[in-house]
């Protein structure tokens, strides 16, 4: 599927005003350089960039940031496009899942089981937080979601979370909305 999408979009990249019929397909392309060039060359495209602050209160916790992202999408005035949510910290991750108390606890417990603190990680000799770096590396610092009709497209139960892995801290989340 990715190969088909890449071919479909890449064959039109040289036309700066080509309008793909389904902008959510961009999320499958991992922002290849040709797509970035396409987005920035098309005069109809808008780019909205915002950084929001999030305070965490525990070493490992999930913070629902969906409202902050929805607010940014609304302020962007982008009707159809994509929204990149990125955490520029090496001990956090961004995830999408249901905002149910038991599930949030299950996710935190599973992360702590898979990446236990004090398990003899070599980086602990430097910072004593290797577990947080490892979890962040494997879970990932970003998500891309489609925007349709000026709203973030997500499933009925899907919310976007910052996963704090080395708190408590003050964190920045970068939100970039691109589209028309």
What is the strand and helix layout of this fold?
Layout: H1 2-10, H2 33-41, E1 46-55, E2 61-64, H3 66-76, E3 81-86, E4 92-97, H4 101-114, H5 130-139, E5 142-148, E6 151-152, E7 159-164, E8 170-179
Antiparallel strand pairs: 1-8, 2-7, 3-5, 3-8, 4-7, 5-6
How would you sum up this structure in a few lines?
Helix content is 29%, strand content 28%. It is built from 5 helices and 8 strands.
The overall pLDDT, averaged over residues, is 85
N to C succession of SSEs? HHEEHEEHHEEEE
Do you know the CATH architecture of the largest domain?
Sandwich
* Approximate shape: elongated
Rounded to an integer, what's the Rg over CA atoms? 18 Å
In DSSP terms (H or I, runs of 4 or more residues), the helix count works out at 5
Q: Give the name of the CATH superfamily of the largest domain.
A: YjbQ-like
Tell how many strands the DSSP assignment holds. Answer: 8
CATH domain class name of the largest domain: Mainly Beta
Distance between the termini: 25 Å
Uncertain stretches of 5 or more adjacent residues: 1-20, 24-32
- What's the main sheet like? 5 strands, antiparallel
Structure description:
With 180 residues, the protein is α+β, with helices and mostly antiparallel strands. The chain has five helices and eight strands, in the order H-H-E-E-H-E-E-H-H-E-E-E-E. Mean pLDDT is 85; it is low at 1-20 and 24-32.
Characteristics of this structure?
180 residues; 29% helix; 2 domains; Jelly Rolls; single chain; 3-stranded antiparallel sheet; 5-stranded antiparallel sheet; alpha+beta; 28% strand
């Amino acid at each position: 599927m990715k190969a088909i999408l890449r071919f479909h979009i890449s064959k039109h990249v040289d036309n700066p005003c080509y309008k793909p019929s389904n902008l959510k397909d961009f999320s499958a392309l991992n922002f290849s350089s040709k797509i970035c060039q396409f987005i920035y060359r098309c005069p109809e495209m808008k780019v909205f960039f915002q950084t929001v602050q999030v305070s965490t209160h525990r070493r490992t916790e999930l913070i629902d940031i969906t409202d902050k992202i929805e607010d940014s999408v609304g302020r962007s005035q982008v009707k159809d496009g994509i929204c990149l949510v990125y955490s520029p910290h090496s001990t956090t991750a961004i995830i999408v899942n249901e905002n149910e108390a038991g599930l949030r606890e299950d996710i935190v417990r599973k992360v702590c089981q898979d990446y236990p603190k004090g398990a003899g990680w070599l980086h602990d000799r430097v910072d004593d937080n290797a577990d947080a770096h490892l979890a962040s590396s494997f879970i990932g610092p970003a998500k891309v979601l489609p925007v349709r009709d000026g709203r973030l497209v997500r499933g009925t139960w899907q919310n976007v979370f910052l996963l704090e892995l080395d708190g408590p801290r003050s964190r920045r989340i970068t939100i970039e909305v691109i589209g028309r």
